[in-house]
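User: I'll paste a sequence; please echo it back and then give the predicted structure.

Assistant: Echoing your sequence first, then the prediction.
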Amino acid sequence: MNIIFSDERMPGQTVVDLMIKAAVLCSKQEGVDPERVSVSVTFVSSEEIRELNRIYRNKDAVTDVLSFPQFETPSDTPEEGEVCLGDVVICSEQALIQADEYGHSGERELVYLFVHSVFHLLGYDHMTEEDKSDMRTREESIMEQIGLTR
């Protein structure tokens, strides 16, 4: 698993290690060889994510995370060579606010947002209640496996 982290606003090494472990588990769960996978992760300010949200989603508001998948489903990925699943943009400030609201650690919220995004990169969405439930089950399974339960 090759995760390319931006240098700015990097979380601590513990969070980075948990993100890598989680991404490997997500890939394996979906039948995508983690040795072939790369993902880009950028941490931004509230102002930066608001601007990205406005540009790419036409929503002029701060959000916690944005995902930019390269493929619609894992079956669309090339059969050989490195597979760049896409880009993840996380607003650390918003993640910490949400962690406080939900009553859990900032570490858990940052990793959860990353896991959520990796599943978006792997083709999942939450447009319907059924899709949302399926995605949430997958996310919680990964979070449990890495020891960051609610």
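Residues 2-145 form a domain with the Collagenase (Catalytic Domain) fold (CATH 3.40.390.30). Residues 12 and 107 are 9 Å apart (CA to CA).
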